[in-house]
Amino acid sequence: MASAAPAADLADVATTDLMSELLHRMKCASKPDKRVILVGPPGCGKGTQSPILKDEYCLCHLATGDMLRAAVTAKTPLGLKAKEAMDKGELVSDDLVVGIINEAVKKPSCQKGFILDGFPRTVVQAEKLDAMLANQGTKVDKVLNFEIADSILEERITGRWIHPASGRSYHNKFAPPKVPGLDDITGEPLIQRKDDNADVLKSRLEAFHKQTKPVVDHYKERGVVVGLHAEKSPQEVSAEIKNALS
To answer: Which of 35, 46, 81, 128 is catalytic?
Structure first.
């Protein structure tokens, strides 16, 4: 059981922040547990749906790249092992990534479950994830498969802008920010990822289809995959997700 924060720490927190967190936790208490994997090619809309899904179901959002960087920065035992591999130019092992996910899902913010984005990418990773969850007495509840034709993705990708701190995504045409180049919430500058161009997209899509189709098939055998019409509007995709998770 996690130890309580020292009283002095709480004394320095604004009352409005404490009340806001308390109300949030009371709202979340009645939500059912959900363990959800998002699968889809770059530009499919996962970045738009993740924050909605996180807020609606009180889930934590686990993006493996961010988690690895956080573990390295925090110098956790697993983070130090990951850094050692990265410093040698090696890939971080599947077991290490699953270990970092295992640590993350035990945090209070993940009490109601999680959204896993960017993992598993291979069947071996899926099997290791399944085994880790089985050890906790849980399993993946739903795999949301964002299905979309490659031909639609190029326009989406090349017009995409990201708020680095939160992961909020915008698009020049489909979801422009209120002020060009600035995040709606914080007013901070948006960035365009260096791999958001047509040439990089083509190779990423080839790798995605080759690696990920077997992962989807793995979970189809377990009856937990829901196909989404990811070419539709964000509102329509949100409605499909709500139906899938109800």
So the answer is: 46
